[in-house]
Design goal:
Elements (H helix, E strand, L loop, with lengths): L16 H11 L4 H5 L12 H10 L5 H8 L3 H11 L5 H4 L38 H4 L17 E4 L2 E5 L13 E3 H10 L6 E5 L12 E5 H8 L1 H4 L2 H27 L1
Antiparallel strand pairs: 1-2, 2-3, 4-5
Helix pairs in contact: 4-5
């Protein structure tokens, strides 16, 4: 028993007067809707609840071509609507012969055929460099002039001086070739910095890099020195806390105003 073909409803579109004249001149139809509802431009069928239920039931374990024939729809529209619903083929179906993944049919027309000669065969080879390509390529061992610096170079980063001490770091890890100058000076006089300790400036001047001005302290001591609880009287510490809380509220209000605007 064959299912009766549902009669497609004509496509109705609201046209402007200029659009009506244009459609009449192109198609010769008195009514512009007649130009749209031709065999070459069939109207789209709406997805009914029955169609959607059938698609959800059959799609995971059935060939899409069979589903499209049963729904009387182009297979492309079935694929598109299934993707919109988030439907996927089951693992059991994809592993079955019905999926044609194991019989060599999928992608057959796009594969290289036996004996096919690649179009670029013989055109490229090691060292091939037409024009000025060879003269502008990086050579092995060449250091980029705009980023590489020789050993002993000193640079200032965020107020701290750094010295390049090696040139053996792996690509992307050049930071390991550099060392803080004040740490290097302290280690030259006292040996390696103990684990959990840091080197600080006694007078707070980062440019005064002399052994007498450098001090090795633990991180706990450094935290204590930098805390306003120990650097200032209790009353000043409370004021700093209140200022921080007030600033946070101001920042929240500014962000809220930015979102509203």
């Amino acid at each position: 028993m064959t299912r009766a073909k549902a009669k497609a409803q004509p496509l109705h579109v609201r046209f402007s007067p200029d659009d009506v004249l244009l459609m009449q001149s192109i198609s010769g139809a008195e009514d512009p809707h007649d130009a749209l509802n031709t065999p070459d431009c069939p109207p789209r069928k709406k997805w009914t609840e029955v169609d959607i239920a059938l698609l959800c039931d059959l799609y995971p374990d059935s060939p899409t071509a069979a589903i499209a024939a049963r729904l009387d729809r182009p297979i492309e529209r079935v694929y598109a609507f299934a993707n919109k619903l988030g439907l996927r083929k089951s693992k059991a179906f994809l592993a079955s012969p019905a999926a044609h993944r194991l019989d060599g049919r999928i992608g057959k027309d796009c594969r290289f055929k036996p004996g096919l000669v690649p179009a670029n065969k013989g055109l490229r080879r090691p060292g091939w460099a037409p024009g000025r390509m060879a003269s502008t390529q990086f050579k092995a061992g060449v250091k980029p002039a705009n980023t590489w610096r020789p050993i002993g170079t000193e640079v200032c980063v965020d107020g701290y001086w750094k010295v390049k001490v090696s040139d053996s770091a792996l690509p992307g890890q050049s930071r390991f070739d550099w060392k803080m100058k004040h740490v290097l000076v302290w280690e030259q006089a006292n040996g390696p910095v103990p684990t959990g300790s840091v080197i600080v400036f006694r007078d707070g001047n980062r440019n005064h890099i002399e052994p007498a001005n450098l001090e090795c302290v633990s991180r706990a001591e450094l935290q204590r020195r930098n805390s306003y609880h120990t650097r200032y009287p209790k009353e000043i510490g409370l004021l700093i806390q209140a200022r921080g809380a007030l600033q946070r509220q101001i920042n929240k209000l500014e962000k809220a105003n930015e979102k509203q605007s």
